[in-house]
Amino acid sequence: MPEPEVATVVRFAGTVRLSRAPGGPLRLTLSGRAAGHPGEQLELAFADAAPGDLPGQLEDAVIERTGPGRYRIASGARSWTFAARSMHLHRDVAPDFYRAIPPRPAPLVRRLVFGAMLRLAASRAGIALVKALRR
């Protein structure tokens, strides 16, 4: 029987926080920064119970898929192998999104109107006008 191919799912850099949810579909969630992309936040959630001896946080963790529904979490000299029905990887894509599609500047008329409204609201006359309009 051939050995299953091991595939790296995620490499974390620095501290990785682990949270467990006893009920619900996602029972183990790992949160931390990606090793390949500095500053990118990752969350990796597994749908099944985690190993009981897994600590509350890890350093420079590597998560590998060792076979269908089988995963290994390695941190330092320790590793934990467990089974999960599914795995969900969440990345913060906002920086990539706003780099690809920069925000559109507000039209000049809108900036002038809102600027005037803010200056009016900051004055005593503006406050009196707002109070009069609310009656």
Describe the structure.
This protein is α+β, with helices and mostly antiparallel strands and 135 residues long. It folds into 2 domains: 91 residues; 31 residues, no CATH class. Strands 1, 2, 3, 4, 5, 6, 7 and 8 form an 8-stranded antiparallel beta sheet that branches. β1 and β2 form a beta hairpin. The chain starts with 6 loop residues before the first strand and ends with a helix.
Distance between the termini: 82 Å
Molecular shape:
elongated
Q: Helical stretch count?
A: 3
Major sheet characteristics: 8 strands, antiparallel
> Which regions contain 5 or more consecutive residues with pLDDT less than 50?
none
| Binned strand content | 35-45%
Total number of β-strand segments?
8
Order of helices and strands: EEEEEEEEHHH
* Helix content, binned percent: 10-25%
Number of domains: 2
Give me the Rg, rounded: 25 Å
Secondary-structure content class: alpha+beta
What's the average pLDDT?
Answer: 86
Brief rundown of the structure:
The protein folds into 2 domains: 7-97; 104-134, no CATH class.
Helix-strand layout with pairing:
Elements: E1 7-20, E2 28-34, E3 41-46, E4 57-59, E5 62-67, E6 70-75, E7 78-83, E8 87-91, H1 94-100, H2 108-121, H3 124-134
Antiparallel strand pairs: 1-2, 1-4, 1-5, 2-3, 3-8, 5-6, 6-7
Helix pairs in contact: 2-3
